[in-house]
């Protein structure tokens, strides 16, 4: 029986998506719930799975094509009997005839075309896609490496001068959305940034003293981000305007603190949101951060996990940034930027000491926040981190 394979039903905030990858080719035998395609939206990558055991008959929407919510992207035959045979040497999927080994690298149509044009051995190409899949980029990289090693001319889809190769690839849906949002923020907000620095020695001492016990008790490491989230929550309660947003000519005050934590992935920057962070303990916040980081790495974040947010924290320090100006995450009013911890000489009680210092940067929308309030907010975070007892006493 022929079944239509449809794109997932998108949330109301998502108009359409792009076919990012076909993990299966026409004629492939697949098992029920096996991933056969990936659709990239403005925020996440959605997986399309096989509805039953059977065969992928036809690819209707090719890689790069735009698809709408619940639109048909392919055809599937579930009348083909599929069984799995296991032995110590290999794994094979069988139906009316034996297919290729299941462990064989898969390719999408674009990658398959390049492999065929250049008479390549697929097994020699390093794969970077999900499920050991060879992508078009993998093939291009392999061609370029071969060209450099052998000094030979390679047949490519575009013309190139030897030694001065270029390749043109379309922006991913996520990258294009990020570009549009950042440009909109720059054009439509009066963004300013205020800076300060914080002595991280008290937090480092806490982590050294209680880190192992914390890990044993809560099964998660005691990091730095959890302290910043709690400090931000308490500062937002003191300065509710920082937690607000602009909607037309109205100011929207949010009676909750949903903290976005920016996470960098291979696809681009994503911002999962810790909902009701003011209601969570430090261990719960650390577990949320770890869970979101793992999901972001694997492309498993859901739409719901990235929607909303009243304030964002970005940590450029993990990449070595000493100082930067974070850009607002619209429609939020402010964003906090963390940076590298660096030992520097500072004056303490009239004496020069070497302390682990971190520069903090807070960008804010001057249409809503005045300098006094923005600076006071950042000072509040600094004071809480330098005296962790304030976090406990909510001071």
Please write out the topology:
Elements: E1 2-6, E2 16-22, E3 29-30, E4 35-40, E5 45-49, E6 54-59, E7 66-68, E8 72-77, E9 83-86, E10 91-94, E11 98-101, H1 109-117, H2 136-150, H3 173-188, E12 191-199, H4 201-218, H5 225-238, E13 245-247, E14 250-252, E15 259-261, E16 263-265, E17 268-270, E18 273-274, H6 282-298, H7 303-306, E19 311-315, E20 334-338, E21 341-348, E22 351-365, H8 371-386, H9 389-393
Parallel strand pairs: 15-19, 19-20
Antiparallel strand pairs: 1-8, 2-4, 2-7, 3-6, 4-5, 6-8, 9-10, 10-11, 12-22, 13-14, 15-18, 16-17, 20-22, 21-22
Helix pairs in contact: 1-2, 5-6, 5-8
What does this protein structure show overall?
- The chain has 3 domains: 2-104, RNA polymerase II/Efflux pump adaptor protein, barrel-sandwich hybrid domain (OB fold (Dihydrolipoamide Acetyltransferase, E2P)); 113-170, no CATH class; 174-393, Chloramphenicol acetyltransferase-like domain (Chloramphenicol Acetyltransferase, 2-Layer Sandwich), CATH 3.30.559.10.
- Residues 84-103 and 152-158 have low confidence and may be disordered.
- The strands form 6 sheets. Strands 12, 15, 18, 19, 20, 21 and 22 form a 7-stranded mixed β-sheet that branches. A 4-stranded antiparallel β-sheet has the order 1-8-6-3, with no helix packed on it.
- It has 9 helices and 22 strands.
- α1 packs parallel to α2, α5 (225-238) crosses α6 (282-298) and α5 crosses α8.
- The longest helix is centred in the middle third of the chain and has 18 residues, at 201-218.
- The protein has 395 residues and is α+β, with helices and mostly antiparallel strands.
- It starts with a strand and ends with a helix.
- It has helices at 109-117, 136-150, 173-188, 201-218, 225-238, 282-298, 303-306, 371-386, 389-393; strands spanning 2-6, 16-22, 29-30, 35-40, 45-49, 54-59, 66-68, 72-77, 83-86, 91-94, 98-101, 191-199, 245-247, 250-252, 259-261, 263-265, 268-270, 273-274, 311-315, 334-338, 341-348, 351-365.
- A hairpin with a 2-residue loop joins β21 (341-348) and β22.
- The chain is elongated, with a radius of gyration of 26 Å.
């Amino acid at each position: 029986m022929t079944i239509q394979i449809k794109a997932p039903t998108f949330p109301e905030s998502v108009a359409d998506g792009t076919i990012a990858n076909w993990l299966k080719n026409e004629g492939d035998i697949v098992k029920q719930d096996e991933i056969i395609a990936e659709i990239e939206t403005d925020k996440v990558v959605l997986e399309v799975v096989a509805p039953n055991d059977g065969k992928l008959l036809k690819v209707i929407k090719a890689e790069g094509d735009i698809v709408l919510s619940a639109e048909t992207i392919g055809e599937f035959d579930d009348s083909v009997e599929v069984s799995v045979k296991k032995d110590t040497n290999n794994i094979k999927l069988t139906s009316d005839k034996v297919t290729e080994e299941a462990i064989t690298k898969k390719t999408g149509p674009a990658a398959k075309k390049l492999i065929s044009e250049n008479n390549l051995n697929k097994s020699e190409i390093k794969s970077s896609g999900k499920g050991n899949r060879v992508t078009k980029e993998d093939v291009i990289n392999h061609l370029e490496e071969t060209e450099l090693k052998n000094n030979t001319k390679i047949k490519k889809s575009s013309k190139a001068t030897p030694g001065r190769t270029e390749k043109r690839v379309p922006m991913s849906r996520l990258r294009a959305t990020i570009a549009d949002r950042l440009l909109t923020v720059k054009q439509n907000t009066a963004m300013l940034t205020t800076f300060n620095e914080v002595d991280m020695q008290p937090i480092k001492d806490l982590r050294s003293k209680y880190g192992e016990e914390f890990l044993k008790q809560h099964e998660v490491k005691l990091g730095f981000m959890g302290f910043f989230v709690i400090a931000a929550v308490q500062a937002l309660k003191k300065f509710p305007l920082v937690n607000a947003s602009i909607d037309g000519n109205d100011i929207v005050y949010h009676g909750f603190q949903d903290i976005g934590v920016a996470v960098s992935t291979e696809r681009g920057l994503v911002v999962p949101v810790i909902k009701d962070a003011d209601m969570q303990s430090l261990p719960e916040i650390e577990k949320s951060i770890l869970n979101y980081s793992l999901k972001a790495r694997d492309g498993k974040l859901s739409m719901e996990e990235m929607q909303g947010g009243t304030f964002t924290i970005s940590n450029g320090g993990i990449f070595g940034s000493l100082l930067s100006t974070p850009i607002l995450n619209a429609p939020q009013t402010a964003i906090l930027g963390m940076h590298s911890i660096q030992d520097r000489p500072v004056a303490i009680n009239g004496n020069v000491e070497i302390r682990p210092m971190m520069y903090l940067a807070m960008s804010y929308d001057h249409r809503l926040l005045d300098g006094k309030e923005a600076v006071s907010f950042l000072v509040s975070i600094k004071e809480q981190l330098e005296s962790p007892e304030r976090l406990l006493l909510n001071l």
